[in-house]
Amino acid sequence: MKLDVVTPEGSKVRDEEVTEVTLPGVLGEMGILPGHVAMMAALGTGPMRVQTAQGAVLYAISGGYVEVLEDVVRVLTETCERHDEVDVERARGKLAEAAQRLSGLSPADGESYQVALLSVKKAETRLRVAESGRQRVS
Amino acid sequence: MATLKQIRRRIASTRSTQKITRAMKLVAAAKLRRAQMNMERAKPYAARIRDVIFDLAGHTERESHPLLAVREEKKALLVVITSDRGLCGAFNSNIVRRAERYLRDREGGHEEVSLALLGRKGRDYFRRRAYPIRREYMEVLSAPSLERASEIGREVTAEFVDGGLDAVYVVYNEFKSAVAQQVVVERLLPIVPESDWALAGGGAGGADFEYEPSRRAILDSVLPLYVNVRLYFAVLESLAAEMGARMTAMENATANAGELIRVLTLQYNKARQAAITKEMLEIVGGAEAMR
């Protein structure tokens, strides 16, 4: 099946032949294999794993949706970074800053708590993706 | 009349000004290209979001979603996008004038309009006047990113959902070409999917989809992205327009400096000739007297 990933920075993956895609759905991880029924799903923040005949590649993605139709997987997401594109220094800084912010908040703070929580999650995802990408290479 | 030295000094200073204006023009041209490139990149993304919203929103009851709900617009927010730096011709004054007219003439028919000012120039202007400023965001155009636009989008959306605002409008400079900008006022919230939205994406159309977890949840996650990307586009358009305006302004400044140098050089030569003539007359006069 084919995979397409669109982000505000342009097309991240274009028409790539893949054998399996694992995505962070809002309700949990979901895997998509060829022959999947037509589906649309909301995406959360987490790693996207793309399996091709050449091997697997990890991306850190956040938000958006996925649409599966006739063996074409279309992902639309706000951020998408391949494991080797992650700016680890920056992600570390963001994580520290967001965690700091989060520690001063409680779920009762509503919006700002959610925002801080999301920042933590985004940074953690980036670091995790970068980390596992490095392990695979070495 | 100015002495030779003074004229020489003025020519030199005009020359160095010209060097600066020429460099600023080149920098503006490069930044303009970058802004345009970012817009090109984000276009398919924005179009896809639009399509999917149109598909999904068409099937849910409009009033049920907070970001789609049209209610009586009593309290509105006007987001005014100006630049942080000057020397860009009428770019900022056009925007500020348009925004002020909107407020003065109660164009939207709102009972109350407050401002969200993006950019130093707009802030400086409106702070000196008695308008309710709700938010200020500086240095957005100087380093445009979706992340920054999303921050603003999130804050504005939260306020809209809370009921603190009934509508959000954006006034910004649309980039027509490097020499033409047009000030536009657009509605950001509520999102009104219009029938002229192209369904070119060939998205959800007629197919029988399984929704996970639900249509509504997908809409929930996509609608805020649309607000963010629209703001991002407004920022990029403004940036491109700002750079276009600066290019024109700096080109004129460079030409004016050239003209000034020409006039000054002429003056300088005249003064020099006059000085030589005078000196010669003095010598001749002196020689005459000695005879």
General description of the model:
The complex is a heterodimer of chains A (138) and B (291). With 138 residues, chain A is an alpha+beta fold. The mean pLDDT of chain A is 89. In chain A, α1 packs antiparallel against α2. The two termini of chain A are 29 Å apart. In chain A, the strands form 2 sheets. Chain A has a 5-stranded mixed β-sheet with strand order 2-1-9-8-5, with no helix packed on it. Chain A has a 5-stranded antiparallel β-sheet with strand order 4-3-6-7-10, with helices on one face. The longest helix of chain A has 27 residues. The longest helix of chain B has 76 residues. In chain B, α3 links the parallel β2 and β3. About 2% of the residues of chain B have low confidence. A 5-stranded mixed β-sheet of chain B has the order 3-2-1-4-5, with helices on both faces. Chain B is α/β, with parallel strands linked by helices. β5 of chain A pairs parallel with β6 of chain B, so a sheet runs across the interface.
Give the overall shape of chain B. elongated
Sheet with the most strands: spatial strand order of chain A: 2-1-9-8-5
**Major sheet summary line of chain A:** 5 strands, mixed
Structural class of chain A: alpha+beta
Question: Secondary structure elements and their pairing?
Answer:
The complex is a heterodimer of chains A (138) and B (291).
Chain A: E1 2-7, E2 10-17, E3 20-25, E4 28-32, E5 39-42, E6 45-52, E7 55-62, E8 65-69, E9 72-76, E10 79-82, H1 88-103, H2 111-137
Helix pairs in contact in A: 1-2
Chain B: H1 4-57, E1 75-81, H2 91-104, E2 112-118, H3 120-127, E3 133-137, H4 146-162, E4 167-177, E5 180-189, E6 210-212, H5 215-290
Parallel strand pairs in B: 1-2, 1-4, 2-3
Antiparallel strand pairs in B: 4-5
Helix pairs in contact in B: 1-5, 4-5
Tags for this entry?
heterodimer; A: 138 residues; alpha+beta; 5-stranded mixed beta sheet; 5-stranded antiparallel beta sheet; 2 helices; B: 291 residues; alpha/beta; Helix Hairpins; Pyruvate Kinase, Chain: A, domain 1; 2 domains; 5 helices; 15% strand; elongated
